[in-house]
């Protein structure tokens, strides 16, 4: 029996189903308030009906086949439906821990890790360790990887706070939004608030030591594989202000083909004199390599 009855194409289709439903509801508004209300009522009735059916299925599974129930709970699509109806068998702490475990390979590729300090009142408290706590890529890591994973696994979470170690002082808690605002204002243009994951199945074919460029949603990225680990960066050399097209990977160093600057790709793209490539989260989502890119300001969901 196959682990998954459907492939990545189906997963991608259903991942955007909510957006399509909302678009259809908005279009009903053109028919007047009464038509819009009828459409919303129809959606509520359908959601309620399927929710009742899901609840019965989950109860039967928990009583007769807990192993199968566990498999469904760890499937992204099924888990999202269980969360909508309040039927997920795992508590919020377990779901947040599992989400952090999924992003740890990305954090580890930059020499860091994340610890869950606690969950209280809808707030998750995290602490970054290793190079993540001081590296300029921490903002990217937090906003596009950790936050995405935690909020997808636990939509009831209302806030994520990061504890940072202060020299000769007690740890202080700062909101994630404040941390990101400080990093964004440090000589760099502000990044868009939203982000979107883009499946790139071709990345699975990248061989160890190989470097390739990809055009995704109007952005060019460079992906290299160190051993079994693929790493993604924005296609821009901060030293010569040019493209990285034609770059070669030697061990963990990615060399710009124009200015010959070497960047350590397993330590967040660190280069000489504080120069840094801009890393992008690259994670397996439903078994498909996916890259997170910031949405342009004003772009739709």
UniProtKB/TrEMBL annotation:
Q: Which domain of life is it from?
A: Bacteria
Q: Which GO terms describe its molecular function?
A: 2 iron, 2 sulfur cluster binding; iron ion binding; monooxygenase activity; oxidoreductase activity, acting on paired donors, with incorporation or reduction of molecular oxygen
Give a yes or no for keyword Metal-binding in this entry: yes
Keywords attached to this entry: 2Fe-2S, Iron, Iron-sulfur, Metal-binding
Domain Rieske per the UniProt entry, residue ranges: 198-291
List each coiled-coil range. Answer: none
Name one process (GO BP) from the record.
iron-sulfur cluster assembly
Q: Name one Pfam family in it.
A: NifU
Q: What does this protein do?
A: May be involved in the formation or repair of [Fe-S] clusters present in iron-sulfur proteins.
Any idea what this protein is called?
Rieske domain-containing protein
